[in-house]
Design brief:
Blueprint (H helix, E strand, L loop, with lengths): L3 E7 L3 H11 L3 E3 L5 E4 L5 E7 H10 L4 E5 H7 L4 E6 L9 E8 L14 E4 L2 H10 L5 E4 L14 E6 L3 H5 L2 E10 L1 E5 L1 H5 L1 H20 L2 E9 L3 H7 L7 E4 L5 E9 L3 H11 L2 E7 L6
Parallel strand pairs: 1-4, 1-5, 8-9, 8-10
Antiparallel strand pairs: 2-3, 3-4, 5-12, 6-12, 7-10, 7-11, 13-15, 13-16, 14-15
């Protein structure tokens, strides 16, 4: 039997990843003290739980056929893999993160040039060394096992750390000096697995469902009834470029309308629809939106 082996990230992204896969139709479970993933409704999927930092290497080596990890770690490892798609999600926020160079507010360090001969701690060692070389600055770049933001100024002069909002840096009295790169979660595949027709189709099908789940997170469905004479006013209250699905009702003077809209717009839209003549308005959540 054909089987697709996939690696999912352990740690901060684990719960968010499991939730995304469940929304896409793949309920994932893992027993305590185990790294073996079970896809409860798909016997043709098997998985392993690894740190995101390691996944691109295991995908490149063919230990797994595909994986979910950060684009930053693909670059850091120099992994030669097929990038299938962006997966814009995170444990919170938009899913876009930045790796930044930061120094204590109390220090005299204002630019990267001020770090000549200084010590810098980071988990992203190779990318940081490349950034310093590009800027012509010689500094001692050392690996940090975590909690990097607390190491300056007691242990190092500056850090390179990942941030989404910058709140942790501010809490530790650190000032951002420069941004090295932006990153987000990606779905990647082993290059040989991608050449295998069955595995490629399985990965592409998975990607369609994951993207549909992500698209649905920012959308809701609206159903409503309305008199035919109010159709023009109701359509005017909907977002531009949006056409509702219209169905007849048993009363030929009335119609039913259904549309998918941005979740952010619903609060202002529903009162306008009501004033335009709509009634029995129902808002409902979506699981997937396949474009």
């Amino acid at each position: 039997m054909h089987v697709l082996k996939i690696a999912l990230p352990k740690g901060s992204l684990q719960d968010a990843t499991f939730e995304l896969f469940a929304q896409a139709g793949y309920r994932v479970s893992v027993s305590p003290r185990s790294y073996v993933l079970k896809f409860d409704e798909d016997a043709k999927m098997k998985g392993l739980l690894f740190r995101a930092q390691e996944i691109s290497r295991y995908v490149e080596q063919g230990i797994v056929d595909a994986g979910v990890t950060g684009r930053d770690w693909v670059a850091e490892n120099g992994s030669k893999v097929k990038e299938v798609s962006n997966l814009l999600y995170a444990k919170s926020g938009s899913g876009i993160v930045k790796w930044v160079l930061a120094a204590p507010e109390s220090s005299k360090i204002r630019t990267i040039k001020d770090l000549e001969g200084k010590r810098v701690a980071t988990e992203l060692v190779q990318a940081t060394k490349k950034f310093f070389r590009k800027n012509g600055v010689n500094a001692d770049i050392e690996f940090s096992w975590g909690a990097t933001e607390i190491k300056a100024p007691a242990l190092v002069d500056a850090i390179v750390d990942v941030t989404e909002t910058g709140s942790s840096l501010e809490a530790n009295n650190l000032r951002v000096i420069a941004t090295l790169l932006e990153s987000n979660t990606v779905l990647i595949a082993n290059r040989e697995a991608w050449k295998n027709p069955w595995k490629r189709q399985k990965i592409e099908d998975l990607n369609i469902l994951l993207q549909g789940a992500l698209s649905a997170r920012n959308k809701v469905g609206l159903k409503m009834n309305a008199p035919k004479k109010s159709l023009a006013d109701i359509t005017a209250a909907l977002p531009a470029m949006k056409s509702p699905t219209i169905s007849p009702l048993s009363d030929d003077k009335w119609i039913a309308l259904e549309i998918i809209v941005d979740k952010r717009a619903v609060r202002d839209m529903i009162p306008k629809l009501k004033k335009a003549g709509a009634s029995d308005i129902i808002e409902y959540p979506l699981t997937k939106v396949i474009k």
